[in-house]
Amino acid sequence: MVTSIASVCLSGGLTDKIHACAAAGFDGIEIMDSDLTVAHESPEEIRALCERLGLRIDMLQPFRDAEGVDEDLFADTLRRAREKFRTAQRLGTDLILVCSNAATATVDDDAVTARQLGELADLAAEHGIRLAYEALAWGRFVNDYRHAWRLVQLADRPNLGTCLDSFHILSRGHDPAAIEEIDGEKIFFLQLADAPDLNMDVLSWSRHHRLFPGEGSFDLVTFLTHVLRAGYTGPLSLEVFNDTFRQTDTGRTAAHARRSLTWLADRVATTDSHDDRRIPEAQCPHAVDFVEISGADLSTADHMLEQLGFTFRGSHHRKPVRLWTLGTARLVLDEQDKHETPHLSGIGLSVDDSDRASARAEALGAPPAFRRTHTGDHELRAVASPDGTQVYWNDQPAETWTEEFTGGDDGDSSGAVVDHINLSYPWQDFDEAVLFSTSVLGLDAQASSEVPGPRGLVRSQVMRSPDGVVRVPLNLAPPTAPTPPRHVAISCQDVIGVAERARARGLQFLAVPANYYDDLAARFALDTAFVDRLRRLDLLYDRDDDGEFIHFYTPTLGDVFLELVERRGHYDGYGAPNAPVRLAAQRPAS
Ligand SMILES: O=C(O)c1ccc(O)c(O)c1
Ligand SMILES: [Mg+2]
């Protein structure tokens, strides 16, 4: 696989972008004309820098509003083009992207447009330049890749081909199957971008919301499969206009971008037998093995777990680490770091093959996590997720590591399990977290939603294993708000009983306002005694066509809290209507 990336995907000046692309392992770069215009380095200096770093300049882009114009304007097209052809020569690239006219086109006549494209190509040929004609989704007369390809065929010049951009094709709902009818050698360039499913005008959608492959809802696997079947052998290039990536750390975003291509090429190889691109297959987790909370002093957590009815299973024989369980929900309290406030620090996932899971993570450029181990301890493979949470893979029964804990009681068989693990991200790391979860962890993205919080909207994106057993909702904090605490939710068979016993042992739950219960009674026509019981225990309630959901939250310890839930019937959600109540109640006093 030969890879490339448009300089528009990254923040910084052009030379910063070039350094970051080379460091992330891209083979080439598309230089955006606007990035070059504002750079102090000459085209020759940019070229020399790229040569020194082993980065090919694949293309200069875009050249706009060239065709479909009257003859006076076309004369000006040729004058402008001559200048840009010289610039491309100085950069040492022979390819320029010509995007379809979105502003000045007045002539809707294929014969005229093809003749003008031909003349432009002839001028390019005098400079040793090739042109890749791309249909913008919002082009005035040309906005469909099949139309652009017809014009390229009509113009019929050896140095004129087409550029396919997944955004322009998939955003318009155009069937990508006809790509296979294009002569692969005439596809001069390929640009890939994903995007969320938004209902808005295509220009704003394209300029602000494109995503790297695997982060949105476009079917890029099918798209790329068609392009490769057409015989395209050029670079897979990313062209992602996105408000967030324009601001985030250049090197980190470049590495993240590169991971998206590894993921995509692997998916295409899996479905279309391009075996050279395979990396070890994803290990879909089949259960949560454990959740780890770290902090300098976790005695309050011990007390809280006891109040919630967890069983103390013992202390680690060598480390200040303790194990508590409720059913098969295993919580590990780790006091090895003497400087930390309590936080959710690790997640253990049960997989079939932890070596393969870790080899895949490495192939995807995810940083391995290192754990202090002592000889003899069961060693788990681990990787650091973008928010720093360590993810461990275990392909052995839990007993292989729980045996290291002694001095506690036997566990219960109540059927309680980890229901979901809620991670929160600052706004700039969110898309990276989605790609990490799909590509490295083998989880699938569900539809995202937005929840109003006191400091802004919190976006929530649930990632889950194909069988729905492992669920990881990701929360995106509003830009000016602190990242909300992470939490782990445990589901049990009788949450009201758990709440009553915990309350009797003195645990105060997150306080729910009385107004919530008035609203609840209005929404659901519930039995008054039942609502009173919920109110007395600060329990939250939700119901849909599939079943019911009852849950409560513990107070926050440092940066972590627990949620206890009960699912009745086939309720499959997370109590989303109650999330604003929680966010408001957790707001730090100001
Ligand atoms: O938004 C644009 O104008 C624009 C420019 C060049 C491209 O390749 C593209 O896909 C979009
Ligand atoms: Mg494009």
Automatic annotation (TrEMBL):
Residues 287-396, 417-555 form the VOC domain. It comes from the Bacteria. GO terms for biological process: 3,4-dihydroxybenzoate biosynthetic process. A divalent metal cation binds at residues 134, 165, 191, 239. PROSITE patterns: VOC. It holds the Pfam family AP_endonuc_2. Pathway: Aromatic compound metabolism; 3,4-dihydroxybenzoate biosynthesis. GO terms for molecular function: 3-dehydroshikimate dehydratase activity; dioxygenase activity; metal ion binding. It is an enzyme of class 4 (lyase). Mg(2+) binds at residues 420, 487, 563. Its cofactor is a divalent metal cation. Its EC number is 4.2.1.118. Belongs to the bacterial two-domain DSD family. HAMAP family: DSD. Catalyzes the conversion of 3-dehydroshikimate to protocatechuate (3,4-dihydroxybenzoate), a common intermediate of quinate and shikimate degradation pathways. This is 3-dehydroshikimate dehydratase.
